[in-house]
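#struct-pred

JT: dropping the chains for the assembly here, can someone run the whole complex?
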Amino acid sequence: MTVNKVTRMYLSEDEIPKYWYNMRADMKQKPEPMLHPGTRQPITAEELGAVFCGELVKQEMDMDTRLVEIPEALLDFYKSTRPSPLIRARFLEKELGTPAEIYYKFEGNNTSGSHKLNSAAAQAYYAKGEGLKNLTTETGAGQWGTALAMACAFFKINLTVYMVKVSSRQKPYRKAVIETFGANLIPSPSETTEVGRRILAENPDTGGSLGCAVSEALEAAMKTPSCRYVLGSVMDHVVLHQSIIGQECKIAMDRYGIKPDVIIGCAGGGSNLGGLIAPFIGEKISGKTDTRFIAVEPASCPSLTRGRFAYDFGDTGRTTPLIKMYTLGNGFIPSSEHAGGLRYHGMNPTLSKLRHDGYVEARSAKQTDVFRAALQFSKIEGILPAPESSHAIWAAIDEALECKKKNEKKVILFGLSGTGSFDLAAYMSYNDGTMTDYTPTDSDLEKGFATIP
Amino acid sequence: MTVNKVTRMYLSEDEIPKYWYNMRADMKQKPEPMLHPGTRQPITAEELGAVFCGELVKQEMDMDTRLVEIPEALLDFYKSTRPSPLIRARFLEKELGTPAEIYYKFEGNNTSGSHKLNSAAAQAYYAKGEGLKNLTTETGAGQWGTALAMACAFFKINLTVYMVKVSSRQKPYRKAVIETFGANLIPSPSETTEVGRRILAENPDTGGSLGCAVSEALEAAMKTPSCRYVLGSVMDHVVLHQSIIGQECKIAMDRYGIKPDVIIGCAGGGSNLGGLIAPFIGEKISGKTDTRFIAVEPASCPSLTRGRFAYDFGDTGRTTPLIKMYTLGNGFIPSSEHAGGLRYHGMNPTLSKLRHDGYVEARSAKQTDVFRAALQFSKIEGILPAPESSHAIWAAIDEALECKKKNEKKVILFGLSGTGSFDLAAYMSYNDGTMTDYTPTDSDLEKGFATIP
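RK: done, full complex below.
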């Protein structure tokens, strides 16, 4: 079968990758280590182990092992939702009249509706294996909370989710699905933690932020017996788990002889994009390919395009280790007008390093442009995308139209990380014309930068 | 690869069936023809053609052609969401401790979230091919309206959807997704039609019913230029389109040497179950197999288990041809406490005939039992099912537990027709304990029967 005939490429079950791909092993210049916020010395495995599961700490700190084996019981779980389809966007290509070939890897075909389940399952699996009874986490738009609630229901672990307050109000059905899977959901900031009470005392009407929810989940994990904190992006072990996305792409594309010229993904904390590019970036670094890698972020939360490459805290409560990353400052809170997710102030340190060293490009998009692209895509390709994922659609369409102008037959691959089924309030505001665009001014950004330690 | 190793069975793209399966060709005793309500004579193709597209009329009336070719452009569309996975419910089997093998065919992996897209795409395709500019339809829980909105966006046809008023209130996000795909949505009963005005005059506070929305959509289609009416269940051409579900199951099961002993589907209008069993029922009728076929319906809308096998109207406005079917009477409106879909007063005439002649069994389920089964399934299999589909889960679990009691290693196949992503209000009411069960009394049913002509 030739590639030109195939629209949906599925791997068979025994082709599902048995290894995650640790792209740090391919980097000549490694990301800088996390630092202890007190001593400013590289953090130790023991220190991280107070917060994270042991196996995750190992994965977090391992910059050298290229292929990390996926445990068999976890592979069994993956088989309930994977392999995910790699789809040729034939209808979109035709509508755009582009000579480019456009492919997307769709991670939304599971009840949580996004790629987040790949890491949620891994983290719940390791927690169970280490005998833990409880997990805490935060969630913003709700994709991660839903995925982890599903994973914890499966592995039978108790879960408490701190959900950014404004999201829990805007997305009652996200809240409902998290609770349906048995998790305890607390809108953040809350009165259940010291940091929550402090933030509420300073700003009683705040809608919360991801950085603040992280602080609460961390504090709760430290105070609860047999409990650890898990999170759904930013960290390198999360990117490692998400590399199953890129691994599946690589296997399928190799089978059909497809070489991507451009790989595009949306970037909030970086796990979706990092997972997608993991097995491809090494060939770029070593000079074997000239593939372009493009991170797309919202103009309203532009860490990679307008942030600083500096050591910063991962949370608003300033309790995490210091991470060398592109950051808008741990005190940065994106405008509440922004409906497209990807609201985190920082970025995965490996992606940050790759961006800094010129291997990854970054672009930002206005949200009305993103929703316009989402609608164009959905009407012709039949998938209503998550606003997050639609950032990648926007850039893919832009690249395809560039190819049309220049009559170039490039191969574009983008990550369609999730569905928009739980984002319909945002679509409604786009449909009725009330959605606005927001781009922070330089002086808005300066306020955030001032919180970088 | 042996069956025991495979959990998710995908067909490759070139294995997608190129034919629908018309199960009426396998029936020795055919369903009785539709009658003109005035003359009580069998309806003619010409009469039906005033309401339906020409090709659909042909399919509706053809009881003899076994394999009906799927047009190539439609196959191209199907490839954007199909083949759908056939999944071995290994985790559920283990949790139940049953020796039975449980398989489900999952039709929820598309943005509309259900099997309805199979017929929606076919109907929009034919309408486009016949040069029509407009379509009207009704929708209850919203699965059909969403699917048709997607199909009409793709084939670029205008669509007006009459949505049962109580559903449009309970499911604002269903409404939003239908509108996002560009359809015009009108809560029914409405002031836009004569029949709507009449029903509102009699009962201003009614939440509407599917039968009433059918009447409005029909009237609107007759009064609009270049317009036809389409519907998402009950009719035999819809069941024909849904036979792609059963066709894919048969191909995959044959490949792995799996013979189903029991095939289970939920039944509202009958398209999901009819499509699932289409290529299997002939062998039962001819005595080659002893497969059991089970239709599961809600106790609150029990057409197959407590209805009458009689000629009745398909709509509350009493404007359709008369259909020989199991019916609760065209005036029957299920309790508004019922949240599980499958609210139609009648049943597809072919399924009705098969039930009447003893080839298909029927069972009814209380909704709290259905939601209990849905939660048990979702936590272990990782798919939040539509309440409709959960009727089949309930029966499959029941059959699997019977196998456990009797230590029988049966093969159970059920149709998982859709996801519950848009049904979270119902899950919330189950979670907080406010969901109630409702079973109509005999005298409740008598009122409905009195409306059978």
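JT: nice. Residues 304 and 326 of chain A are 6 Å apart (CA to CA). The domain at 3-16+71-113+235-449 of chain A is CATH 3.40.50.1100 (Rossmann fold).
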